[in-house]
Amino acid sequence: MVSLSKKSPEERLNICRKYYRAGFAFLPLLWLINAIWFYKQAFKVEPYPQQAQIRTYVIRSAIGTLIWIIIIVAWNITFQLLRTKMGPLGDFLTFVYPRGYY
Amino acid sequence: MRSSVIFVYLLLSILCVYCSQPKRIVDQMYISFDHARYCVRRLNGTHEIGCQSSASGNSGRMYMIDNDEEFNSYLMNTKLIDSSGSFIIVLNVNLFNTYYVDKLITSLSSKLNGLLLYLKSTSSRPEYFSHDDQCPNHRYSYYLNQTEIINWNSKGTGLFFRSFPFPIMLIDEEDDYKQLIKFYRQFNYSQSSSPTCGLELKSFQNAAHSSKTCIRRNDISHSLIDLEETFCDPVGGLNIYSKLPQSFIIIPKKRQPKSVILILTTTDSFQMFLKIKGTTGGAQQPATSLITFLALAHLIGQEQNEFKQQDKEIIFVTLDGDALDYSASFKFMFDMINGSFPIGNQNEEPIKVEHIHSIIEFQSLSLTDKLSLYTYPSSLINQTFIDTLVHNNPMIIPMAVDSSLPPASSQIFLRQTSSLSFPAYILTSTNQNQLSNHYYHSFFDDPSTLSINISSLEYNSTTEFSQWIKNIVEPFGQTLIESFVGIKKNITIKQEIINNLVYCILKNINCPLIHNVTNQSTGNSFDSSNETSLPFSINTYPVAATPTFPFVQNILSYFLRDRIYDTYNLNETTCKQYSNNDSFCSYIYVGGYAPSIMSEQSFDGYCVRSYIRSVSSMSPAFTIDNYDLSQTTYPAWTESRWTTISLRLFVIPTRKHEIITLVIGILLLSVSFIVCFILRYYTNISLLQPSSS
């Protein structure tokens, strides 16, 4: 387990930056983890020079996570409601067909 | 000390072996009924019909309703209806019609979890039991746009074509009924909270919504997972046709117009309640017509020297799949219009609509005194033919000109040619626009309706039925010879042949007849269907291992064989050599069916030269590219797949019993936790460390 207290502030900034940038490859979980893990570092620990940058990364990761949650929930609800009404498109998008039910 | 320990140990193990009953607990909880009939789901282009249960079965409190008074008292008994969340109604089979079923569905709505029908005994079967529509096969009939439709099957309930959200099963064996009633009386004594019987019906169907959806889902496979799951299969079997192997129109010779006569019959039926290894019904429709058809084929084969003298071909055609919206007839006409009839050799000139002289059909025949002859259209029928037919057989009554046709495959032949090309002659058993069959398309349509005592029927017993067939077929053959060959000849068929056909089709397919007309390996394939009658049910594609098609193929081709080969003493290798030189006919080496062979000498084996073709009878809807299955140009029926079907009886305990069981269980759980805790605390055994000696 990586323990952030043992790392130097530059290394912490490095990790946070890597997670932030990697999250743009359609990986919202990385942003979620980034926001939660570095929350303490960004807001609760005594200030150190790299903290401002870490703070921006954490806030942006949190916003990104929120946007993704909205997109995924909206698509989930749409698919559940409109799967049968979409006709052939609904069947092409389904991965496992419900046996015995439409 | 040690010996006593061993002695006690041995004593305990002996006691355990002899005193314990080797039965699983689940066997003591459930009584299962393995011989129940069940209803399955089928789909057409736009709708689904049939029954569906949940994947783990539909269960509920059992309530038996035997007659009308019990039915009414049950519906008024709100206290009883409220006492349980789901019911399985056990209904007398006489009460299975739209009135009672609809009333149950509206009164109980979601509490009705299943329906189990029972038949008290074979002698108490209802007088009418048909769940086909009142006007069968009307969705694609010739009379689509007519406002006045004739109800040929007026006692039909139409329940087969309805979709039920719960499973329906039927018990038709007397032992099952006795067991059911014994448990019911034992437990459902009072309507209060005493333990009651419950039933679980499981008949989960894979397909849903419509053929279009189902076929689409069959075809989509997400290739990450390699298993393609098939949900439904299209309905279709084989259309078989055969003719005398005397004349072929080989290209470039031209076929004369109006030179082909088609004789039609069907080989399928349906039942609402299926059973694995059970009778399928179909004795009146289509078995009677099929036996008449095969006997006529034998007569024509017998008199082939007369038919050689004229240029018209008589082709015998069996259609499989017409019970559901005439799929087989549509396929046959589709093939004919597109030039692929007859299939097989490209050098044989195709038969098109203009080459057809007329069609003759045997449909829905029953053991009746009078037969009805329907003909259409009046502009094309040959009145002399009808007069000769009636003159030779006074049993036949010609119906009025242009009267409505009964449900018959000919309707589609006429529809696809707009009734402008050839006339149709349909021989059927109807009386005042009513089919004589009380059990039309149901499993009750068995040989007892033909006055046949099936248990005492032997391979060569002459019954009233087989004599009736002889009295129909002989005049018919005579009429064909008079009309097409032009000579008056008294022809007869041996009663033995018809007796054998009746035995094979209605009692036991694995009969000497089929073994005499097939070669060794084909004959052996019938051994697995020993003591079963010819099954008449809905066949699906890919064609399952039903014995119906090989049976019809071999017998039809044998009856229409080239009889000159009966006089040749050939062996198997010579027969094979003949087949290498002839690409139109098939040659097989068989044992020979004695009653059919006219020559004086008899040999050990005969080479049979015959013309036989089989084509898939799946509706054109499934074979045309980019055909939208929800269109109504062609029927698109499919049958769902299913895995296990089961019917089980169990006892629902009272509320008090359930609570006590739960409390004891929780107590045991907590006691075991406490005991384990105490053991851990007070003992010093450590299993991982080596013991100090």
Automatic annotation (TrEMBL), chain A:
InterPro entries: Gamma_Secretase_Asp_P_PEN2. Pfam families: PEN-2. The keyword Transmembrane helix applies. It is found in: Membrane. One of its GO terms (biological process) is Notch signaling pathway. Its main location: membrane. Belongs to the PEN-2 family. PANTHER family: GAMMA-SECRETASE SUBUNIT PEN-2 (PTHR16318:SF0). This is Gamma-secretase subunit PEN-2. It comes from Rotaria sordida.
From TrEMBL, chain B:
It is a single-pass type I membrane protein. One of its GO terms (cellular component) is plasma membrane. Residues 39-207 form the Nicastrin small lobe domain. Pfam families: Ncstrn_small, Nicastrin. One of its GO terms (biological process) is Notch signaling pathway. The chain crosses the membrane at residues 659-682. It is found in: Membrane. It comes from the Eukaryota. Keywords: Glycoprotein, Membrane, Notch signaling pathway, Signal, Transmembrane, Transmembrane helix. Residues 1-19 form the signal peptide. Its main location: membrane. The keyword Transmembrane helix applies. Belongs to the nicastrin family. This is Nicastrin. It comes from Rotaria sordida.
